[in-house]
Every structure is written in C-alpha cells, then in structure tokens.
Amino acid sequence: MTETSPILALSHVSKSFPGVRALHDVSLSLYAGEVTALIGENGAGKSTIVKILTGIYVPDTGEIKVNDQTQQFGSPRDSWGAGIAAIHQETVMFDELSVAENIFMGHMPGGSLIDWRETKAKAQALLARIEADFDADAKLKTLSVAQKHMVEITRALSHDANVIIMDEPTASLSRHEIDELFRIVAQLKAEGRAIIFISHKFDEIFRLSDRFVCLRDGEKVGEGLTKEVTEPDLVRMMVGRPIDQVFPKRDIPLGPTVLAVEGLSNATEFADVSFNLRKGEILGLYGLVGAGRSEAMQAVFGMSKPSAGRVIMNGQELHIHEPIDAIQAGISYVPEDRQEQGTFLPLGIRENITMASLFDHVRRFLLSHRSEQSAARAVGGRLSVKAAHWEQALGELSGGNQQKVVIAKWLATKPKVIILDEPTKGIDVGSKAAVHDFIGELAEDGLAVILISSELPEIMGLSDRVIVMHEGRFAARFERGSGSGALAWSAEAIVAAATGAPVQERAA
Amino acid sequence: MSVFLKYREWVLAAIITSMVTGISLYAPAFGTFENATGVLNDTAFLFMMALAQMVVILTRGIDLSVAANLALTGMLTGLFNEVFPDLPAFIYIGVALAIGGGLGLINGTLIALLRIPPIVVTLGTLAVFRGMIVVIGGGSQVNTSDMSSTFLSFPKFGFFGLSSVFWIAGTVALLAWFFLSLTRAGRGLYAVGGNPVAARYCGISLPFQQILAYTISGAIAGMSGYLWVARYGVAYVEIASGYELTVIAACVIGGVSIGGGVGTVAGTLLGALFVGVIVNALPVMQVSPFWQMLISGAVILAAVIINARAEGRGLKLILPEARRAAAQAKR
Fold first, then answer.
1. In which domain, by residue range, is A409 found?
2. Is residue A3 domain-resident?
3. Do B183 and A366 touch (CB under 8 A)?
4. How far is CA A69 from its chain centroid?
5. What is the ipTM of this complex?
6. Which tens digits make up the pLDDT trace of A25-74?
7. Is the CB of residue A277 less than 8 Å from the CB of residue A258?
8. Which positions in chain A touch B201 (Cβ < 8 Å)?
9. Rounded to two decimals, what is the model's pTM?
10. CATH number of the domain bearing residue B103
11. Which chain B residues are within 8 Å of A362, Cβ to Cβ?
12. Are B276 and B46 in contact (CB under 8 A)?
C-alpha cells in the first residue's frame, strides 16, 4: 500500500462532557483499502470516536477532514453524505420490514412515490455483490444476527460509503459466520474502502487489520502497523499505568465464608460458576461486556433459573426461585442501569426506599408508614439524599440523588451480600471516587461485596480477589498480592484472561 | 400517597364546585338537596367501577370488559334469584362478587400467564361475556316480575336520602384506600405499574399483581351487576353498553395515568363525580338529548386537558432554595 493522502483524518480532536474528559487531542488517519483496528479498554474513548465520525457528537476542538476537505458533521445525515457508515454492535433496524426496505430506509428510490420494483432490484444487486444467501424480500426478523450484519453492510454500500465503521461486529457471531464476515471485509478492502474495526479479540485484530490505534483514558497511546507488534505489546499499551495507586485499598480483616456458589450453570449463558465469598471481602468479577457476569449473578439473585448448581449461605443451602427469596436470605442486587431498573419515579422517596423491604414494615398485616419513614430517614440520611421531604416524588430529584435513593433501597434490606453491577457506569470522575469509598465502607461494615465491573483500575483497586469470566466460564482467578499458587496479580494477566488468551503461570 | 389531596385534585375539586354553582344559578332545580342526593345515587355505580378500573390501570393495564361483566353477572344473579328467590340480599351480593371475581380471574390469568396484552384480552372477553348473556338468557330478559322482593328492595333501601348503592360505594372507597396505602399487595400495584423491571428486582411478582388487579376489578363489576339489575328491575344483553368508556374517562379525569403507577382514591372519586355532575346537569338544563352526548364528551375532553396541565411541567427540585420552598409548602 502506498502512502497516499488519507480518505479520512481526525486531527487533534477533543471532546468533554461535564466532569468527564472523553477524548483528548486524538488524531488518526484512514487510508483507502486498509483496515484500522481501534483498540482500548472499555471507556477508553472508542465509542466517542465512532459517535464523532457518525455525526452524533460534535467535537469541542479539532477537525475532521474527508479527502482533504474540512467537514462539519452536525447530524448523522452529514456523516452519511460524506460517505461514512457504521455497523453497530446490536443492530438497530426495523424487524417487521423487508431487507430491501431496511437497506433503503431514508433514501428509497423514486420520487414522492416509492419505486418498489427499483428498490427491490437495487437491493438484490447489492446483496449479490457481497454474495448474501438471502432474499431482498425476506423480513428482517427472519434473519440471523450475522445476516443482519450483512444487511447493514449492504446499507452502507447503498450509500456508497467509503469509510465503514464496524463496532464489535463479531461479538455474537459463530466461528463460521465470522469467516463469512471477514471474506466480505476483504472484498470491501479490495474495492478501496477504508474500514475501522473495533474488537476485543486479539486473534481477529491480527488476522484482519493493517494498522492499529490504541486509546487509553481518551488519549491516543500508540499506533502503527499491526504486523510490527505482538499481543503483549498491545495489552501493555491498553493497560499502561500502575493501577494499585489509584484507589487506596482499605485493610479489612476477612470473616467467615458467607456465600458459597457451587457449579451454577444454565443452558446458554454460563457454566460451572463456583466461588466462595467471605464477610468483609470484595470479590471483583471482571470480563468483557457480554461475558455472562451479570447473567450468572442474576441467577444467584433469582432473576433466572439455573439448570444446575447450589447456592449456600452461612452453611445452609438456599432454594431461590424468585428475587424475593434472595432478598429475604440477605442478598441484594443493584442493577447496572440504576435509573431504568431501579427507580419508581411517580412514587415518593419513602416508598422507593422501602420497596424491597416492605415485609419489615408490616405490623399486624398492615404497613406502618411511621416505620417506613424512620427507615427512609435512616438510610436516606446515611447516603445524604438531598430532598425537600421524604414524601417527595422521586422524579423531582436530580439524577445523582435518584441513584442514591436506589442504593438506599438495597441497604434498607439489611443485606449480608451485596452484588453491585457496574456501580460507576455513567458517573463522572468526582462521584466515582465517592462510590469507591462507599464500597470500601460497606465491606468495612461487614458486608460481603461482589463487584461486577468492566473497568480494570476499579476492579483491581477495590477487590481482594478477582475472578475473570470469558464466554460464560471462569477463565482465571487472581488474588491481591499474588499468593502462592494463584496467578500473579497483574493488569496484563487479567486483561489477557478476559480476552480469552491462554493463561500461563508467570515465573515468580 | 398523602391523606390530603394533591394539587391537581384540588384543581379538580375547584372545577366541580364552580361548575355546580354555575349550573345551579342557571337552573335552580339543580342546586337542591334532593337533586344533590339524586346525583350521588346515580353516580354511585361510577364511583365503584372507576375505583376498580383504577386498580387495573395502576398496573399499566386496562379492563374493557367491566361493563360486559356487570351485565353478565347481573343476568346470572337474576337467574340465581329465580331459582332461590327468598335468600337475604347479602347472599346475592356474595354470589355476584364470586361470579364477577371469577370472570376477572379469567382476564387476569390470560394476561399474566399467557402474557397477552390487556387491551386484547379484555376486548375479547367483552364480546364473550356479552355473547354469553344471549346464549344463557336465550335472547330474553329477566324482568321485575321474575325477581323476588328481597332481591329488588335492597338497592332502594338507604339513609339520609342516599341509597344503599351509595353507601356500598363509600365502603368500597374506604377499603380501596386502605388496601392501596396500607398493604404490601396494594403498594405492589404501584410498583409494577411505575417500573416493572425495578419491581421484579424488588421481589414483587408481576403475574400475582396482575391477577389480583383483574380479579378485584371483576368482583366489583359483578357486585355492581347485581345492584344495577335490582335497581332498574331488568336484566338483558344491552345493560350498561359502552359504560366501560365512561368508567375509563372518570379515571383519566381523576388523574390516573394510563402509563401506570399513578392514581389516588380521592382523585378517582372526584373524576367520577365530575362525570356524574355533567351527565345529570344536561337534562336539568334542558339541553336537547341530541346534543347531550356531544357536549358531555367535549366537556370531559376539556377537563382532561385542564387537569393534565395542572400537573405542572414536572421540573426537578435541584436548587437548595427550591427544595426549602417545597418543604415549607408541605408543612
């Protein structure tokens, strides 16, 4: 490939949100006929780049050049117009419509009346170009995920896009389907298009990409030709900093085992999940998005039925069929999307806080509002919820205070084990530190904490032990300070395990 | 849920008061004590049925089959009375509650266990229930002459000019308030309607709450069926035809959110009273019967719009001084 001028270039692009620096001074260039891999941990800034390129975000500073012309993308339509198309992780399309309609939605052939004959003929021709094995008349909902990706690629081709962004396109594909996708990518390359490929799987990055750009904390920390680097090089670049210094770990003496899970499995999501959890311990559960961490822990909480396995609490086997059984046994689960999955906006703060512990406030078959109020005051006060009064509707509170109320609700159940699913997702830097402090406080108070997180610094900073999940199974276990026999406590080893790389014991 | 009225309920109460005053000035016959008790007696069915509907709407559902349930249960209770003519009235009430509750249980089971949308299920059972009246009654009516005196006299008996139907509606309202604010199951209705996913995490079962809501709705519709048939002395296919829409309108005017999770007993009663006043006032004001339906529809629409706007623009209280002001206002 000759070094010609790039099809698309970002130069010195920065983007901030209140309290978060999402991208800082990032430049990257895409060349015709090349695949550029965009790599980095969750939250490193990859999605922000995709959103800037597709016109969803406008950068604060820096410029976008398409074929040496400076462009302003005010909306997704501008980005299409410049020949950029994105294929998303979860396809967003119209399930009830036909393939042809999906391909041409927004730019159907014909004037004010749609020319159906031409729509179908053009769709069929585009499908033939990538050798798709389905018909333009097929309803989208009858297709597999892989076939839906092909529809999206065809949609990109229908715009005659020269830059195609693929955001983790292989996440839910089978081996065979991945091969099929790679064949199409090779064809797009040969046609002279530039491709951005985002993946966490190193084998795919090495197999497919010509160049790589590595991001960390919103900054570009490395780039080059893929053939000139090795997997450990990339991991080192992604992780980068000494992690232990970020969050001072509290020194909490561990008590007896509270919770033991043995061989928990279900048919499609996770298998052989076994672990022990001690009083005062923080157990980190790390893995890529979609590794089955939430699914496994939700089964412990009774949100789904495992097909095999046992949950033992303080030596007694629990029979958990519904969340209420888990709550009464002393297990709490704070879901990932606290606003969507945790708030009752029309109801008052008191009602929100006591919603998971109503049975504690029943006096002679009836709810005691006074008892509810004192519980709300106690837990809400501890989390310093800022409200006019406890009967105020939750919807009138600020987002941060709503989150506090959701956490207060779970503390009000007086749990012995608390499962926190991505507790700092969508929180700005300042509040993150407060949340981390609070998690340490919970452990100090004698709770056993399971911390599901995709952020490596967080999980290594807070946890006593880390279990890494990969494709539904426990891939590796790490112990803080690297005890004998356990794998070494290092960011590189944890990331490698999460990406499915073979785990090797590091020489002492 | 405060015992005191919420802001929008005060607005609705004010609207009703000024409406009654205005109508009384225009048509003095409307402002009398006799007429007031007449309106309350007439609206008693709507009070009960609207409360039952509110329980369902709280769960993000809707029960279109209530009027059909009322008619079917009324007919069945009438036929039961033909076979057992001399039982005390409370037995007939019990039978009507059981039949109506059973019909509601069918709705609840289809919705909760087969996960069919409430509007589809209850639209279907609406037709089935009305169809069953034709089949069971053979297309004929049950008339006053077929009914026993204990059966017929109960709804006409009362105190202070208010019929037993009104007092039963009052009891239903008290029980509803009690149930919704002081029991776990009642709180659960608000939870599953307010946020079904969050409710699941809190250990609240959506199927249980749905079955409960539709059974309550059915039982109250059934009881109203007996009272209706006995009061008007006739049971036939077309009884209370289209009444479900009046019931839902009363809920919406009373501030019950079709989106679920929002609604109070006081608001719903005020909503029903509003509809009752309109429906009773138009004939007194000698509005032509041809115009009555159109006018009452337009007024109901206006009330919904005014009441929805009274809700305010839903600003959050983030500024400390705004929070202080709100706390002050509460005191």
1. 349-413
2. no
3. yes
4. 34
5. 0.81
6. 999 999 999 999 998 877 788 888 998 998 888 899 999 998 888 888 88
7. yes
8. 303, 323, 333, 335, 341-342, 356
9. 0.78
10. 1.10.3470
11. 184
12. yes
